[in-house]
What does this fold into?
Amino acid sequence: MSNKLIDILDDEKKVDKLNEDYHYRQSIVPRLEKLRRIIWNENIPGITNDEQDDDLGFVKKLSDDLKDNPQYRLTSNEMKYCNELWKKYK
It folds into this structure.
């Protein structure tokens, strides 16, 4: 093992994986933050505060998972639920 940065990042596969993870987070995290803001700011008739808090918690958990684990990817069900939330609050 080397302690030199150039030796650690010299492997193209490692760099490609880092770039892939970075770009995935850069495309998903801002969208989740926008969804979180929409849920937080909306007062929609028929939606209780508890329901709104649960939805906010779900989106926050996804954002935290992406920030804490660079390799994390949203599942198909998580994406579908986010789309449902978007339609619900928009």
